[in-house]
Amino acid sequence: MATALANRASSDRALSLLKLPFSFLRSFSAASQSPSAPNPNASSSASKKPKRRKKKNLFEVAQFLPSWGLGYHMAKTHWTGVSYEITKINLYKDGRHGKAWGIVHKDGLPAADAPKKISGVHKRCWRYIPNLTKTTEIAPNLTKCAETAPKAEVQAS
User: Fold this and answer.
1) How many whole angstroms separate alpha carbon 96 and alpha carbon 20?
2) 122-137 pLDDT tens trace
């Protein structure tokens, strides 16, 4: 009779273990592994490629610039030598969509006098061009200095 009770108790334990969730049992088996044993998941995580950064539309680029990028140059990433100087932006409520107007610049020089509506502002391929705003401000000062320098030499001789 004692052996029958012992057999019944062991079978009850086995049934109760089967009723436990599998993840609970896995946590016990993972804890019993030695730390020196190689982890098969570690090698697969090292071979994973890093996530690609999501490119930004014109408004997501402009939001970090002062006054939402008015007066700054922006271009699509695949354009070469062409950019827009932003003159006006109408934002929708979410701040990531809207309409924009600007003056076209080719090779750093204005190609048009009047601003026109920029097409493709919601496409995710826009970038800020930092050098164009600085060079257009500095370039006129350099030409004035170069013109006055030869006159001083002529007067001296």
Assistant:
1) 49
2) 999 999 999 875 444 4
